[in-house]
Amino acid sequence: MTRSTSVKDQDVLEYGHNITLEQAKVVMAAAEAEAVDNQWPSAIAIVDTGARLVMFQKMDHTQIGSILVAQQKAETAVSFKRPSKVFEDAIAQGGMRLRTLGMSNVIPLEGGLLLLVDGKIVGAIGASGVQSQQDAQVAQAGVSALLALDA
Questions:
Q1: Is 10 a residue whose pLDDT tops 70?
Q2: What is d(CA 15, CA 13) in angstroms, rounded to the nearest whole number?
Q3: Which of 66, 73, 120, 140 is in Cβ range 3.0-4.6 Å of 43 for a Cys bridge?
Q4: What is the 3-state secondary structure (H, E, C) of 46-108?
Q5: Domain boundaries, given as residue ranges, for the chain
């Protein structure tokens, strides 16, 4: 059995095998349930270690702009091995950190989180549709489901 871990457990993160479809289904179901429970119309994207889309869904009444944003949040997290919120926080600090806005492959919005198994990155999840903190809550539900999968 594999063991899922959180980002806090690792000093240096490595890419592992890509997330499986079965794992992605568990992650997606939990994220969707969180969005439904809170009545948050959301777009949810799960990508593999190469930032390629594994699974995507858009709930009814979700704004269409969130389709791309959800995927970009997941891509940002997996490409830079950190939550997308790191970039949001950097920009909020201003100064030299505003250079981040010039990076075409970063979306500086909370809601993109890494998916880890055995301490290695297997992919990422991104959620969009409501406020960034709520998007992160939806994504975190998916992360937590992966953690519980092999606990």
A1: no
A2: 7
A3: 66
A4: EECCCCCEEEEEECCCCCCHHHHHHHHHHHHHHHHCCCCHHHHHHHHHCHHHHHHHHCCCCCC
A5: 7-149
Coil, helix or strand at residue 123? strand
Q: What is the C-alpha separation between 144 and 151, in angstroms, rounded?
A: 11
Q: How far is CA 89 from CA 86, 107, 132, 134, in A?
A: 5, 12, 12, 16
132's tokens: 């960034």
pLDDT in tens, 83-141: 999 999 999 998 888 888 888 899 999 999 999 999 999 999 999 999 999 999 999 99
Residue in the structure block whose two tokens are 């949001």 = 88
- Which fold would CATH assign to domain 7-149? Beta-Lactamase (3.30.450)
